[in-house]
Design brief:
By secondary structure, the protein is α+β, with helices and mostly antiparallel strands. It is built from three helices and four strands, in the order βαβαββα.
């Protein structure tokens, strides 16, 4: 499973990454977490507002910081 955090590194992007890492740890699953900060790469996902979170290439969260519980439900 690949989780991508789409954002330029702002505080909200960092909180999104923290939520993703916590969710993976709590579920005890293996997942690659990648931070995508290049605007051209972010736009390839069709994302114009960050932060965003993608799971296996599909955008699941857009323009908000998900809770750990939100991320866990996306990964199960």
């Amino acid at each position: 499973m690949k989780i991508q955090i789409l954002g330029t590194g702002c505080p909200k992007c960092k909180k999104t990454a923290e939520a993703a890492e916590a969710a993976v740890n709590e579920l005890g699953i293996e997942a690659e977490i990648e931070k995508v900060t290049d605007l051209n790469e972010i736009m390839k996902f069709g994302v114009m507002m960050t932060p965003a979170l993608a799971v296996d290439g599909a955008v699941k969260v857009l323009s908000k910081v998900p809770s750990v519980e939100d991320v866990k439900s996306m990964l199960q």
